[in-house]
Structure formats: C-alpha cells, structure tokens
Sequence to fold (255 residues):
Amino acid sequence: MNSTSSPLSGQLALVTGASRGIGAAIALRLAADGAQVACVATSKENAQSVADACAALTPGARAFGVDVSDTAAVAELVKEIASSMDVGQPAGPHILVNNAGITRDQILMRMSEEDFDRVLDVNLKGAWNFIKACTRALMKNGGRVVNITSVVGITGNAGQANYAASKAGLIGLTLSVAKELASRGVCANAIAPGFIETDMTASLDDKARSELAAGIPLARMGAPEDIAGAVAYLAGPGGAYITGQTLVVDGGLSV
Ligand code: NAP
Fold:
C-alpha cells in the first residue's frame, strides 16, 4: 500500500494498546493509510502479530513493550522509536494515539485506593507520559494527537468512578494540549467510544449485550474498526482544522 498517494505516507504513527481490540484496529487502519506504525503494548511479544500485519500494509512497522504509566521508561521508548524508525522525514512520531486503557470496576465503598490509582496511572498519566515525550517531535512535524477517552468520561457511570475520572481527565488533558500546541500546528482531539466489542466488554453476557444494543439507536455494539475510522479521519488530511474536540462514536447511545 505504501504509495505516495496514501494519506499518511511518510508519517510515523505511535499507537499505544495496539496488541488487540480498538488499538489493533487503529494501528492496522493507519498502516493501511500509509503510516509506518509503532505498535506499543505491555510487552513487545503482545504487540508483535499486529506489528507484522501493519508491516504487510506499510513496511517498517515495529512492536514495542512498555508500561505506559512508567514516565522514565516511556521517555526512553519514544527516543528509541524516533531513532530506530526512519520515515525519511523529520524524526517522528507525527501521529500519537493514546489508546492503552484498563478498567478496575467496583462500587465506591469497595473500591481500593490501589485500584483508583492504577486506573488513573494507566489511562490518564500514561497519555500524559507519551504526550510529554513526543511534544518536541509533534511540534516539529505539526503533528496530531488522538486520545481515546469514553462516553463515561462525559456521563459518569456507577461502579466506574476511577475509570470515568480517568476518561474525564483525558478530555481536560486534550483541551489543554490543543490550546498549548496550536501555535505549533499540532491538533489534539479525543474520541469517546460507546460500547465496542473487545476483550474489555467480553464479560458481558448475551442478555446484557442485547439490553445494551436495545438502548443504542444504531441497534448494535460498535466494532473496533468504527473507532479506527474516526482516528484515521482526525489524523489525516480531513482533520487539519479540527482541534480540542471530543468526537463521540457510540451509535447514538448518548443522544
Ligand atoms: P482491551 O481490548 O482491553 O486492550 C487494552 C490494550 O491496552 C491492550 O493492548 C493492552 O496491552 C494495553 N494496555 C493495558 N495496560 C497497559 C499498560 N499499563 N501499558 C501498556 N499497554 C497497556 O481494550 P479496548 O476495549 O480495545 O479499549 C481500548 C481503549 O478504548 C481503552 O482506553 C478503553 O478505555 C477505551 N474504550 C473502550 C471501550 C469499549 O467498549 N471497549 C469503550 C470506551 C472506551 P496488552 O495486550 O499487552 O495487555
């Protein structure tokens, strides 16, 4: 696919949580659009098969492992990615997608401090770690940041105080990055998925699934590719004049 007419040709895209689910679909879509993709998961082994599939679409994709909540390790990893993945343009990344995320659901009275802190550390601080480490390259490249938040970051959700707080925080982080880096040509946006078919929602039984679908105007759970399409739009030429927005991709759930 690596033709110069591909919308993201010559760009380096870094996608966290790229081993499965939404992140894998995003990595594959950006590769299909011509980007060389750095696929990041908790281990290189976990991200390898998606990186291989991306490389079949646009050569040069590679797998990396890091705990996104580890500030020093993320800074080292971003240096390694920029120096080892040459796209023939100023050193990347040009596109940063903060997608890695976890849930540790529990009602407030039973939620442990550890579970609150861990979800904030991975979902919110993890995104801040990557943005901070990539800021110089993004400014040089007039790059794009896409943070994957959630509709529950807008609405809140019983049993998800930690997760909803982390996702609401991501929206505030996105707005601040958009304002701070706009003068350098960087666009930063968030995407808020509704219910998407991935490992994260795999524990829902059939009854819960059909009840959920009944509450969604488009009458189905989303597919990871539904989110990947929105990321590709914001990262591509169509997103050049969009910044500081949260795009809800939920089949109308929140309407
Ligand atoms: P998933 O299938 O559970 O995949 C999670 C991904 O994050 C995996 O690649 C995992 O890597 C990675 N990850 C988790 N903790 C990490 C850490 N500490 N360091 C590095 N990587 C880490 O999740 P998903 O459903 O695709 O969700 C992706 C994003 O969309 C998340 O931010 C989630 O909150 C958001 N979202 C999902 C839904 C939904 O309905 N699924 C709805 C709204 C928002 P390993 O494979 O190595 O563990």
